[in-house]
Design a protein that fits this description.
Helices cover about 40% and strands about 20% of the residues. It has about 300 residues and is of the alpha/beta class. The chain has 2 domains: about 5-120 and about 270-300, Rossmann fold; about 125-260, Isopropylmalate Dehydrogenase. Helix 2 (about 30-40) links the parallel strand 1 and strand 2. Helix 1 (about 5-15) crosses helix 11 (about 285-300) and helix 2 packs across helix 11. The longest helix has 17 residues, at about 150-165.
């Protein structure tokens, strides 16, 4: 099982050659991450965007732009469509977001003619390497689905479980994270968490074990669960944290990055190919890890 992001990066090096399609590539941190991916032996890249700006940024970052095919397209929306089409046509394996608004990027992904739409819900999963935690911690959804209903949470859960399987965990523990660990009729998240447990126990959800509702401490700390008298043996052992909404997910994501200094990666799932969509505030290391995760999933 892959338990660290370093192990993930090493595993990507063992895969066959891959190609990244970068939408609106004129962004120094994205270009840096793409170039690190190239130098690490992960993948080559096709850079779609304003060629003059791409070359200028490459020169500023001491990046040899002659390594990459550059498709000159100054309009951001058209650049995104061209990058998406490279993936949907099989000329590239993974789509990477450059300097472009997320709404424009997603519109191209969902384009009816060249897009990457599938019958699955698009959702985001973030992987964290947290000091003191003995395995990668998955957090979902922190970036795509604002206030998912029960069906949406089931789909988000299943997308994350598929990633866990590909990274070598055949039976991940999913915790439905709430503010409390008891079902409360006035708190929809607790009702949803209990429903997901029932769905897993009845076979409607497979490939994982689901526990909840649990507060965050009881999801990740066996000691905290015992202290609160929780007897469920899954409590405190979560691999995947299913958050109640995007606000809780996004806050946890940024707390782990900026306060706990956790190393991270993240991808959009549910499309025909993995999609890299990172925050503008994410470091080039986080972008590199996200590229590695997307490439690994694309080839697994």
């Amino acid at each position: 099982m892959i338990n660290t992001l370093a192990q993930l990066r090493e595993a990507v090096k063992q895969q066959q050659d891959s190609v990244l399609a970068v939408a609106n590539a004129q962004d120094n941190e994205v270009l840096s991450a793409v170039n690190q991916a190239y130098e690490a032996g992960f993948a080559s890249a096709i850079l779609v965007g304003d060629q003059e700006k791409i070359i200028t940024l490459c020169q500023e970052e001491n990046i040899d732009y002659s390594r990459y095919q550059i498709i000159d397209e100054k309009d951001p929306a058209t650049a995104c469509l061209k990058a998406v089409e490279l993936v949907s046509s099989g000329k590239a394996d993974v789509l990477v977001k450059g300097l472009v608004d997320t709404s424009i990027y997603l519109k191209a992904i969902l384009d009816k003619e060249v897009g990457l739409r599938s019958d699955k819900l698009l959702s985001h999963v973030a992987l964290f390497e947290v000091k003191g935690y003995d395995r990668l911690l998955y957090v979902c959804d922190v970036a795509m689905n604002v206030a998912p209903d029960l069906a949406g949470k089931k789909a988000i859960l299943e997308n994350a479980v598929e990633v866990a399987h590909k990274l070598g965990n055949p039976d991940p523990i999913v915790a439905g994270v709430c503010a409390v660990e008891k079902v409360n009729e006035k708190m929809q998240a607790t009702l949803d968490a209990k429903s997901l447990v029932n769905m897993q126990e009845s076979g409607q959800i497979s490939g994982c074990k689901v526990v909840g509702p649990l507060a965050l401490d009881n999801a990740v700390s066996v000691e905290a669960a015992h202290h609160k008298g929780i007897t469920n043996e899954l409590a405190g052992r979560a691999d995947i944290l299913l958050m109640p909404d995007i606000e809780a997910g996004n806050i946890l994501y940024k707390a782990l990055v900026f306060l706990a200094y956790a190393e991270n990666a993240g991808v959009i799932l549910g499309a025909k190919a993995p999609i890299v969509l990172t925050s503008r505030a994410d470091s080039d290391t986080a972008k590199l890890n996200s590229i590695a995760l997307a490439l690994y999933l694309a080839r697994s």
